[in-house]
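Q: Please design a sequence for this.
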């Protein structure tokens, strides 16, 4: 794992300007055990540690009904990621790849997605498993997983 400002051999960086063409409203914050990218899993695991997703006001009422789903899709802003590489050399490979051919957090618009297992909902706090982001990551959106359009079946009597 390289530091935030380094690039690996054969990677290509392009000059960029500060982004000013989109406005996002962060609806919450993600709380995980990871504070350093080196410790963060490359992809979330459904048996990973429990993490908390905190939803900010005025968005808490938008959670109504989310507890009926087993999986939720989180979209989050990778606020600590570089945004200037077009060619990358992943640490697990000797090859180079274009940024759009990777799930790397280093992207022009560093939006992360993950399908997480919903454990519980307590007011504005969701407890989930399967995350792959740093503690304090801003939440962009939350929705039922794309494969879970219908709520889970109620328990049989």
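A: Design:
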């Amino acid at each position: 794992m390289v530091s935030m400002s380094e690039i690996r051999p054969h990677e290509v960086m392009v000059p960029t300007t500060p982004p000013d063409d989109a406005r996002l409203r962060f609806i919450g914050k993600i709380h995980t055990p990871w504070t350093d990218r080196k410790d963060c899993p490359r992809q979330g695991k459904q048996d990973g540690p429990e993490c908390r997703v905190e939803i900010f006001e005025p968005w808490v009422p938008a959670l109504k009904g989310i507890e009926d789903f087993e999986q939720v899709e989180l979209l989050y802003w990778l606020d600590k990621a570089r945004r200037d590489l077009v060619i990358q050399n992943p640490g697990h490979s000797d090859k180079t790849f274009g940024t759009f051919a990777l799930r790397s957090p280093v992207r022009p618009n560093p939006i992360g997605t993950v399908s997480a297992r919903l454990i519980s909902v307590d007011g504005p706090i969701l407890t989930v498993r399967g995350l792959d982001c740093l503690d304090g990551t801003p939440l962009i959106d939350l929705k039922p997983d794309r494969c879970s359009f219908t709520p889970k079946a109620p328990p049989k009597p």
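Q: Thanks. Anything notable?
A: Residues 33-144 form a domain with the Elongation Factor Tu (Ef-tu); domain 3 fold (CATH 2.40.30.70). Strands lie at 12-13, 28-31, 50-55, 71-77, 85-88, 97-98, 111-122, 125-129, 137-144.
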